[in-house]
């Protein structure tokens, strides 16, 4: 697998790079949060391993932003915070696994291998549809020469809808996979987010061609 490791403690970071590389993985590493987030959003990884406490940007915030922009990428939190409340928060904010320090090398490798089974296929990074040119890695859309920035959550919605082209994605599924939340009462937030996104990407937000509404069901990739 191609793994991104974000860990600020030098000895542990180098040790984990050696451990994972020795198990046959290709490892990119970062020592602080801002750099880690930039790599996570601009390159494709099969697994992201994050320390919780990082300089620049906390690992939990990186987790939240990556989960919004890349819903399918497995994320493992690696941290000394062992309280149950912290574990629940990490998993709620998008982590797929939570490993508490100290840990054994065998345990970590076993967990990494399990995560590898969940790794998605290589994700599409650029796409042109109905006159809009999307650059998911740079979080932008270009139409008629005008470049518009996209939020990570907006890219996440676009990825999810495009991956499911030909089918319908419910509001509840978007809420869970992109927003990291559950609850029918909150699905109105999805409608509001889609409305904002349409203003950025559609020729005419009132007659959307890229993200179409399916009455009573949710949204679908229009691509016409």
Would you give an account of this structure?
The structure is a single chain. This protein has 224 residues and is of the alpha/beta class. It has two domains: 2-116, Rossmann fold (3-Layer(aba) Sandwich), CATH 3.40.50; 126-221, Arc Repressor Mutant, subunit A. The protein has eight helices and eleven strands. The chain has a five-stranded parallel β-sheet, with helices on both faces. A four-stranded antiparallel β-sheet has the order 6-7-8-9, with no helix packed on it. The longest helix has 14 residues, at 188-201. The two termini are 36 Å apart.
Descriptive labels:
224 residues; alpha/beta; Rossmann fold; 2 domains; five-stranded parallel β-sheet; four-stranded antiparallel β-sheet; 8 helices; 39% helix
> What structural class should be given to the helix and strand makeup?
alpha/beta
What is the CA-based Rg, rounded? 18 Å
Shape: elongated
Which superfamily, in CATH terms, is the homologous superfamily of the largest domain?
Response regulator
CATH architecture descriptor text of the largest domain: 3-Layer(aba) Sandwich
Oligomer: single chain
> How can the largest sheet be summarized?
5 strands, parallel
Provide the residue-averaged pLDDT: 85
Q: Could you name the ranges where pLDDT drops below 50 across 5 or more consecutive residues?
A: none
> Number of folding domains?
2
Please report which band the strand proportion falls in: under 5%, 5-15%, 15-25%, 25-35%, 35-45% or over 45%. 15-25%
């Amino acid at each position: 697998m191609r793994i991104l490791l974000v860990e600020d403690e030098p000895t542990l970071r180098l040790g984990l790079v050696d451990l994972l590389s020795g198990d046959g993985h290709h490892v990119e590493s970062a020592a602080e949060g801002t750099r880690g987030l930039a790599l996570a959003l601009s390159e494709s990884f099969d697994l992201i391993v994050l320390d919780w406490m990082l300089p620049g940007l906390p690992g939990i915030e990186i987790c939240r932003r990556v989960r919004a922009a890349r819903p399918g990428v497995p994320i493992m939190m690696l941290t000394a915070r062992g309280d149950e409340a912290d574990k629940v928060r990490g998993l709620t904010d998008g982590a797929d696994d939570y490993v508490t320090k100290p840990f054994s090398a065998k345990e970590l490798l076993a967990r990494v291998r399990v995560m590898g089974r969940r790794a998605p296929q290589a994700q599409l990074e650029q796409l042109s549809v109905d006159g809009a040119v999307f650059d998911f890695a740079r979080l932008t859309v270009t139409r008629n020469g005008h470049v518009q920035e996209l939020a990570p959550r907006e890219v996440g919605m676009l990825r999810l809808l495009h991956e499911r082209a030909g089918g319908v994605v419910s509001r509840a599924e978007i809420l869970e996979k992109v927003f990291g939340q559950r609850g029918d009462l909150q699905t109105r937030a999805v409608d509001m987010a889609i409305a904002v996104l349409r203003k950025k990407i559609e020729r005419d937000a009132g007659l959307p061609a890229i993200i179409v509404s399916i009455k009573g069901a949710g949204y679908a990739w229009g691509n016409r």
